[in-house]
Structures are given as structure tokens and as C-alpha cells.
Amino acid sequence: MGYKIAVVNGDGIGEEIVPAGVRVLEATAKKHGLDLEFHEHEWGAGHYLKHGSFMPEGSIEVIQSYDAIFFGAVGLPEVDDRLPFKDFTNKVRTSLKQYVNYRPVKLFRGVESPLRNKTEKDIDFVIIRENNEGEFVQSGRILYPDEPHGMATDTSIFTRKGTEKVAHYAFKLAMKRHKKLTNVTKSNTLIHTLHFWDTVIAEVAENYPEVEYQKMYVDNASASFVLRPECFDVILTTNMIGDILSDLGGAIMGSLGLGGSGNINPEKVYPSMFEPIHGSAPDIKGLNIANPIGQIWSASIMLEHLGEKKAAENMVEAIHRTTSNGRLTKDLGGDATTTEIATRIIDQL
Ligand code: NAI
Ligand code: MG
Question: What is the pLDDT of residue 1?
């Protein structure tokens, strides 16, 4: 099959790990007879510094013509850090109705979790983060910032439709996995929005009687990530809680650099976007030491979304084989470079 992929390296280590991911995709395509056509777009904070915007006007229309978007991360220390999310990541996620953020957490063979005595069997779950509304709608104001009576607000918005849609996706996923879904919430203190969220999810749960449904507050869930990750199968949670918990998920896998994700439009009316869970890591950019595995895993999630299951599984297995051979990047205590890991994964395909 042929697919047209928009490639957005973005900033920082994105310029190293995305090309690594594209190399692995090209090798996978060759092996599985896929025809992948890559079109690069130099969008991000670098583009902002040169041209005053994260992407030129009309870019959202341009990316709609692709089958998928393969993305690194955006953000640079020289650029106002309120902009990357507003002007790129969230803009794409909301314009293209990518209302599901799919973020698997699992242990790769040969990678030691910082959690003592936890193995591949214990750390294997998926975070489904609501990706279009909630705490991140950016509805708010700052008033009189320099005055003694200065004030600021941010309002969360949860809609019935938005909550139902992401909940159905999560329960369907649970049906394909171990039939257990945990709603991670904070409705004991956010008594309006998250009470509503819980109520809608409990209604959706009635359509999936085979799925064991439980509710857990995020404070307890954070502790459970560390103490008993084996209690999770599918986690359904809000935009901000999911953002925070997915970094914790990356950490218990051994490194933030291992986490892959998909911003999914399940109806496939719009293209979905695939990116690692971390940011542009400017502290290590240009050193060829960034871990490319989260990016490469995102590539595999992309192929699976496009319907190329065999190729996707092949990529994940090649990652497992590479990590179990003991060559690791610096974040995992090794000294392998970004490019070396990509080459080794290609060799293992
Ligand atoms: P970050 O995720 O970029 O980095 C956090 C820490 O993890 C750093 O010490 C970094 O070196 C390390 N790290 C991250 N990815 C790694 C990898 N692949 N290999 C090895 N080490 C890795 O988060 P931070 O520092 O909070 O943000 C940096 C910039 O990224 C900011 O401008 C922020 O706004 C942006 N950002 C962008 C995102 C996106 O485009 N989706 C998501 C998160 C942050
Ligand atoms: Mg994040």
C-alpha cells in the first residue's frame, strides 16, 4: 500500500530522532512492500524565529491531504514557551479532531525499570488521554498582571460528546486487551467538571459489561504507577492528568525517551499525528545522544493505525531485540548514539 506522510522534525532533538525514525520506516517499508512517500515541513519554534509563526498560514489545510503526520517535538529556550502547544501541537490535535491520545507504557526487553522487581509482565498498560478539551482548552485571562489586584483564570471545559467519544474508544481498546479500565480522575476536589466526566464515563461503561471498570483518584494513581503498575490495563484520563502521568509512565519504563504515542482521529476522517511523549530536550540537542526509541515506537504505532499490523509488529520486535542486545543510549546508562540505535534496529528488522 502507498501512504503520504508529512514529516515535521520540529526543534531540538526532533532534528535527530525524526530522521532516525524515517530511516527505520524506510527500511521497514522496503521489507514489507509498503510505498511510503515522505514530505518534510520545517515547522516549529525554529520557523517562528525566522518567519514569526510556527507554520505558515494554510498549513492545517496542507496537512489534511496526508495519510499521517510523523512529528518530533517543538519548543526552544529562545522562544516564549506558551507558543509551541498553542500554535502547533494543540492546533493540529484540535483542528484534525485527534481527540484520542494513545500512549502505551511497557518495558522493553533488556531495559531495567527503576522499579525494583518489576518485569515485562508487570509494566504493560495504555494511557488514553482525552486530547481536545479539558484543562487545556486555553480559555482564560490575565488581568492587571502588574497590579496588587492582578489575577488570572484558566477554565476547563468538558463536553458530554467529547467525553463519550474518548470513553468509547478506551472501552473498545480494553475489550481487545485485558478487559480492565481505570478512569483516573480527581472528582473529589474538581467537583463540577470531573464529577461530570465520571458520570458520563460510568454511563458509557454500561455498554461494556465485560470490562471491569474502576475509578481511581490521580494522587492514588501516581503512587500505584510506582508501587503496583500491574494493576493497570487501560487508563482513561483527562488532557492534563494524561500529560503528567505519561511522563511518569516513561520514567517507569526506564526513560522519557522510550515513550511513543499517537494523536488519533479514530474515524480516520482526518490524518492522525505520531510523536514521542517527550519534548524537544534542548539540553541534549545536537549531541547525537538522544534516545530515538520513543520516536521509532511512534512510527510503529503510525503503521498500525494505517492498517499495516505486520510491519508495525516487526518494528516493535526489532526494538526489543536491540535493547536486549545491551546497546543503549546515555539516558539508559549506555553510550550508544542516536544514529547507532537506529542502525541496529534496522539490522534487527
Ligand atoms: P523534555 O521532554 O524535552 O525533556 C525532559 C528531560 O528528559 C530532559 O532532561 C531531556 O534531556 C530528557 N529527554 C527527553 N527526551 C529524551 C530522549 N529522547 N532521549 C534522552 N533524553 C530525553 O521536556 P522539557 O525540558 O520540559 O521541555 C523542553 C521543551 O519541549 C519545551 O520548550 C517544551 O515546551 C517542549 N515540549 C514540547 C512537546 C511537544 O512538542 N509535544 C511536549 C513536551 C515539551
Ligand atoms: Mg507532556
Answer: 83
